[in-house]
């Protein structure tokens, strides 16, 4: 068997799976030219009316025995079929090393999904996928070791890709916005999964602003569309029908349409407050700036092991990064965001002068702080990188 496996990274979302051939070079990892995307609804076993099992029931069954419904088994089969076809389209005949990012809470062995808010539970996902691949003659270099999260894999991509923005700094925060919000963190030179910060630093989707609106709404493409829906009076369904997504809404804001301008005014302010909360909490601890989505969640501690760390950079990625880059020079998104962050830092009583001199120059945010990631499909890239790292360490 070859010592250089054919690496595939897969990003399994709520509606589709995207797979890439991952290439390793002396300068780091990158996406190859081979890409395959399959939508679950294209498969016969997919049920467009599928309703997930009540989330509380799912969480209760994690602790005992997961009892899959027939509907879950059928829907899960559509996921497996989409993954198999995606992998098959990338298969070149060489044994595959596969990394997979998936939403949901994972089983104890990390090879299955024990709870998923918007889809079927699939506790034997990797077993089922490996069996299906074997049946059509696809050889694996190694068994799939674990399912990871898209947020963690964004961090892997930024750390190990040749275009990654984590790799050249010691301390950085990453916010990716696509279907949802993805948080990644590097402190003291090491990637720090948010699952390990849960006592003192919350994930973006866990917080809401003082108006009770989830912060994830301001970072995700669908959330931005829903804000525009409210201001424009157009239903989300009609916006989808007419292909009016976040990029078109930005174009309308640049053209000074009132509803679009109001949308990005909200987005700029709330994202600035979210990014400032990251700066503040890492430097001086949780200050209760936001409310909790889950009222039963324990409030974050104001103490943690990383006090007085100043972030070298904040990275914005995925579709949110694309929007931010496209807005530069128009005074619609980029400029208000930078202004608000600088203003929050300048007025802060919890960030001392030492930190302020690093974050702001004069009265404005240091232009070296905010960076926009150019990594395409970062979760798939990170998944493939993780698969190789795990294999190398075994």
Mean pLDDT: 94
Provide the structure class: alpha/beta
Number of strands: 16
What are the low-pLDDT stretches, counting only 5+ consecutive residues below 50? Answer: none
Domain module tally? 2
How many angstroms does the end-to-end distance come to?
17 Å
Radius of gyration: 21 Å
Strand content: 15-25%
Which descriptors would you attach to this protein?
13 helices; five-stranded mixed sheet; 40% helix; Nucleotidyltransferase, domain 5; 2 domains; 394 residues; alpha/beta; globular
What's the structural blueprint in terms of helices and strands?
Blueprint: E1 6-12, E2 16-25, E3 28-39, H1 55-62, H2 70-90, E4 96-101, E5 105-106, E6 113-115, H3 125-135, E7 147-148, H4 150-160, E8 172-177, E9 181-187, E10 190-191, E11 207-208, H5 216-219, H6 221-232, H7 236-241, H8 246-254, H9 258-284, E12 291-292, E13 313-317, H10 318-327, H11 334-347, H12 353-359, E14 360-361, E15 364-365, E16 370-372, H13 378-393
Parallel strand pairs: 1-4, 4-7, 8-13, 13-16
Antiparallel strand pairs: 1-2, 2-3, 5-6, 8-9, 9-10, 11-12, 14-15
Helix pairs in contact: 2-3, 4-13, 6-9, 8-9, 9-11
């Amino acid at each position: 068997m070859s010592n250089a496996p054919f690496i595939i990274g897969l990003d399994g979302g709520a509606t589709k799976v995207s797979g890439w051939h991952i290439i390793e070079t002396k300068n780091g990892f990158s996406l190859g030219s081979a890409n395959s995307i399959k939508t679950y609804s294209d498969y016969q076993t997919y049920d467009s009316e599928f309703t997930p099992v009540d989330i509380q029931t799912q969480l209760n069954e994690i602790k005992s025995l997961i009892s899959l419904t027939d509907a879950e088994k059928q829907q899960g089969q559509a996921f497996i079929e989409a993954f198999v076809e995606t992998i098959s389209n990338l298969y070149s005949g060489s044994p595959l090393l596969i990394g997979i990012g998936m939403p949901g809470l994972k089983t104890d062995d990390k090879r299955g999904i024990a709870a998923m808010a918007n889809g079927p539970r699939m506790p034997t996902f990797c077993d089922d996928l490996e069996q299906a691949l074997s049946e059509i003659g696809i050889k694996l270099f190694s068994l799939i070791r674990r399912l990871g999260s898209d947020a963690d894999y964004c961090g892997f991509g930024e750390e190990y890709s040749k275009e990654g923005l984590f790799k050249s700094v010691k301390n950085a925060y990453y916010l990716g916005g696509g279907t949802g919000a993805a948080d990644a963190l590097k402190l003291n030179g090491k990637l720090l999964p948010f699952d390990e910060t849960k006592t003192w630093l919350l994930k973006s989707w866990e917080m809401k602003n003082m108006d009770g609106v989830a912060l994830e709404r301001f970072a995700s493409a669908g959330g931005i569309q829903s804000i525009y829906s409210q201001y424009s009076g157009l239903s989300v369904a009609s916006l989808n029908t007419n292909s009016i997504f976040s990029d078109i809404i930005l174009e309308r804001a640049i053209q000074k349409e009132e509803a679009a301008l109001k949308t990005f005014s909200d987005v700029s302010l709330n994202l600035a407050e979210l990014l400032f909360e990251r700066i503040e909490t890492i430097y001086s601890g949780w200050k209760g700036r936001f409310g909790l989505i889950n009222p039963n969640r324990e409030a974050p501690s104001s103490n943690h092991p990383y006090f007085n760390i100043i972030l070298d950079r904040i990275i914005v990625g995925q579709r949110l990064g694309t929007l931010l880059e496209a807005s530069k020079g128009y005074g619609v998104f980029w400029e208000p965001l930078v202004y608000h962050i600088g203003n929050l830092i300048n007025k802060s009583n919890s960030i001392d002068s030492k930190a302020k001199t690093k974050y702001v120059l004069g009265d404005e945010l240091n232009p070296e702080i905010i960076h926009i990631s150019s990594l395409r499909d970062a979760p798939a890239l990170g998944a493939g990188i993780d698969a190789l790292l795990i294999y190398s360490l075994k």
